[in-house]
Amino acid sequence: MPGENLSREEARERADLLTVDGYEVDLDLRSAVGEVPGSGEPGAAGPGAQAPGAQAPGAEAPGAEAPDTQAPGADSPPRTFRSVTTIRFRCAEPGAATFADLIAPGVTAVTLNGTELDPAAVFDGSRIALDGLLAENVLVVDAQCAYSRTGEGMHRFVDPEDGEVYLYTQYEPADARRVFANFEQPDLKAPYRFRVTAPEGWTAWSNGEGTLIDGVWHFAETKPISTYITAVLAGPYHYVTDSYRRTFDDGTVLEIPLGAMCRKGLARHFDADDIFLITKQGLDFFHDHFDYPYPFGKYDQAFVPEYNLGAMENPGLVTFREEYIFRGQVTQASYERRANTTLHEMAHMWFGDLVTMRWWDDLWLKESFADFMGSFAQVGATRFTHAWTTFANNRKAWAYRADQLPSTHPITADIRDLEDAKLNFDGITYAKGASVLKQLVAYVGQDAFLEGARRYFKRNAYGNTRLADLLSVLEETSGRDLTGWSRSWLETAGLNSLTPQVIFDAEGRVTELAVVQDAAESHPELRPHRVAIGLYRRTPQGELVRFARAETDVAGPRTVVTELAGAERPELILVNDDDLTYCKIRFDAGSLDTLRAHLGDLTDPLARALCWSALWNLTRDGLMPARDFIGLVLTHAGRETSIGVLQMLHAWAESALTHYAAPAWREEGGRLLAEGALRELRLSGPGSEHQLTWARFFAAVASSDADFQLLRGLLDGTAKIDGLDVDQELRWAFLGPLAAHGRADESAIDAELARDDTASGKRHQVRCLASRPSAAVKAQAWAQVVESDALSNALAEATIAGFSRPGQRELLAPYAAKYFAVIERVWAERSIQIGMDVVRGLFPGLQGDRRTLDAATAWLDTHQDAAPALRRLVLEATDDLARALRGQECDAACGPAASG
């Protein structure tokens, strides 16, 4: 039988054959604590145990964990738990054969319709062969499943602060089979009953309400849901409760118990009140617009450690990365991101959980909608009324990058198998899809769009759908034929550019203004765009404001905007004003000159964000020198009022310097950025979020002795900036660059861990240790990630982040050849998630030279038969490198540089 990588055809055949009536899953998790027999692996450390990551005297490791949090050695048995699953299902063709999915170290017993099967004969490590099916069947599987260190399946985490053990599950797209036997595909929905036996003193949670009976947690049966959104959580979590109540027009009352939880070590930082506020605002908003009561009973939200994702929409038990609990001072942008994620996951209760895509081809049916609804609900229901500005500046940048890679794909993608599915949780499926839906709302009208959603829920509740199911209801409610729209926007790949062409008469008035549309040769589709064109000029007070606007449909290569004929000469023409469509914005020469001089004078936050995004796209496309973009940041970013936009500008400026600037100019560019960041830091209001943001940016770009002396002084208290609270998170932000530049040694890093001996502190310490500019350190970090699987997902990620530092290109040069020699083995031996982290994170793109590009291209040429998902990752990284080299050529050709 094939292995773990379920194909679309296999899933289709199994869905045609089977109907699943229900699951009963019994998990015994008492083995999560205590020693693993025969392995020498201890369980939870006691409160007085040595802190994880503590090193022996003289040890050079950049961050090895202590044994209590390491995976057992290769010759030792893994820590396992007992999983007993009973599946009741029907077969449309009695006598046929199929298989169940299970990834487990061992199977104790398999019983099909009362007949005991030999596990050695029917279980191959990932599938259980089921022959001779009856019309109605009962399968019972008793297995030993492994706890995870990679964030896939049943993840087990030992808190270094207090030795407590925490468990949670994460499955999407197909890791429920690591916890219980099942039919792992989204269109075989069923109700579930979970029972969990946990260590004494623990609490357990699942999708349904739980009751503790004789030491076993019994959970209410779920509605029919897919395997990947079932969930179990267990441990000594800190748990806070609230409730939501709504009375509908017919007098019925809906009451939803609310819960929020985190590790005990984070309880003092846990702002559950704000989490519940956003939750209630979201529930009100979606009930107002969806006309379908929340169908899954309770609504718990768990913030869990070492989480690979932002969050996951398990109905009744949503999981989030615990970094959304803020240990120190953060800006409103952080709260806005958390609120967006909260509402994104809540939207999934309807788009994804109630109605689920049939196969991963239509992943966008849930992710694009949730991404759109996250911002839509923020603007309509919360204090974050400028969420569309963040969307335009942040989320769409993700989409623009993904849509210009050689791996770009239509929003409705061709997903052949599970490895394809894992890689398609990308900027196209999320942010481009959401952008296209935003345009669809403008095209069909908001009322028609929402009425279509309401009909979609009611017709397909607890079922599975495809693209056609959604389009049919939207055509009903809008009266429009969406076939052509769908073909252009959902079924073709690529990104259009829109450029204004303007002719003025002798008096300076617009004679003709046209919008020119083009596309890349590889994806030549020209699409219909509903756009607004804004004309801007400066007031006597110097503000750059809009004085005329026209909304029109752009189609084909050139569209004349007749409504703007006769308008006075603008200083700036902004195509796609108000961000109605998905495109790259270009400028005419006069508009670009205006932005160079007056971008900071542009008063509208969304227009400003759109201009910044367009300028960044020019830089990435090799049409604007990197030093010019950096000069714009130095000149205008200090006036940026939107803190989220400012943070993106800082990230883009760093990227411009690292990847797109000519190598000969990098040192000068770094000096200019550091000087500009320090200047803005000192000018920022004391205690303001702008001050905090500029402080973090200054630390990130610090490059001179004076810069490092200031960072050291801020850490030891000998220097002070009025109003800047150097809390623990900011201390790590300052220590990181000191370590990377050889200004903080291992003892200084370990001393900081002693101040912050927590899970978060451990991750920071590991990253700092691996970032030190030493050949021995780099060799050890490489070995820990590539040659060993002892590190957890979070610590492997931290090690990779520390290993790959822009200022250490010479130290990292020897690893370019090593990378191409090992990636096939790493991909074959590791889980998909860890494989992705290693392949992406260790790609030698920082070398930024033709030799590395040639090596990457040669690997692709000589490894045509490598796993398609692996080839895709290398192809994407190679394309990024080629783009960077084109940017460097553009920058080198432009001559001297930026100012601020």
The end-to-end span amounts to: 64 Å
Q: What is the residue-averaged pLDDT?
A: 93
* Structural category: alpha+beta
Radius of gyration over alpha carbons? 28 Å
Overall helicity: 40-55%
Strand order of the largest sheet: 5-4-7-2-1-10-13-12
* Strand segment tally: 28
Given the C-alpha coordinates, what overall shape results?
globular
Report the portion of residues in β strands: 15-25%
Largest sheet, strands/sense/barrel: 8 strands, mixed
Number of helices, counting only DSSP H or I runs of 4 residues or more:
28
The stretches of 5 or more residues where confidence is low (pLDDT under 50) are 45-75
Summarize the structure.
The protein is built from 28 helices and 28 strands. The protein is α+β, with helices and mostly antiparallel strands and 900 residues long. A hairpin with a 5-residue loop joins β15 and β16 (253-262).
Q: Would you give an account of this structure?
A:
This protein is an alpha+beta fold and 900 residues long. The chain is built from 28 helices and 28 strands. Helix 19 (728-740) packs parallel to helix 21 (759-771), helix 22 runs antiparallel to helix 23 (793-803) and helix 23 runs parallel beside helix 26. It is globular, with a radius of gyration of 28 Å. The termini are far apart.
List keywords for this structure.
about 900 residues, alpha+beta, eight-stranded mixed sheet, five-stranded mixed sheet, 28 helices, about 40% helix, globular
Topology record:
Layout: H1 8-17, E1 18-28, E2 80-91, E3 98-101, E4 106-112, E5 115-117, H2 119-122, E6 127-130, E7 136-146, E8 153-158, E9 165-170, E10 192-197, E11 203-206, E12 210-213, E13 216-219, E14 232-235, E15 238-247, E16 253-262, H3 272-290, E17 299-304, E18 311-312, E19 317-321, H4 332-348, E20 356-357, H5 364-381, H6 387-403, H7 418-423, H8 428-444, H9 446-460, E21 464-465, H10 467-478, H11 483-489, E22 496-504, E23 510-519, E24 529-538, E25 544-554, E26 558-560, E27 572-577, E28 584-585, H12 589-598, H13 605-620, H14 626-636, H15 643-660, H16 666-683, H17 689-701, H18 705-716, H19 728-740, H20 746-755, H21 759-771, H22 775-787, H23 793-803, H24 809-812, H25 815-829, H26 832-841, H27 850-862, H28 868-893
Parallel strand pairs: 1-10, 16-17, 17-19, 20-21, 22-28
Antiparallel strand pairs: 1-2, 2-7, 3-6, 4-5, 4-7, 8-9, 9-14, 10-13, 11-14, 12-13, 15-16, 18-19, 22-23, 23-26, 24-25, 24-27
Helix pairs in contact: 3-4, 3-5, 4-5, 5-8, 6-8, 6-13, 8-9, 9-10, 13-15, 14-15, 15-17, 16-17, 17-19, 18-19, 19-20, 19-21, 20-21, 21-23, 22-23, 23-26, 25-26, 27-28
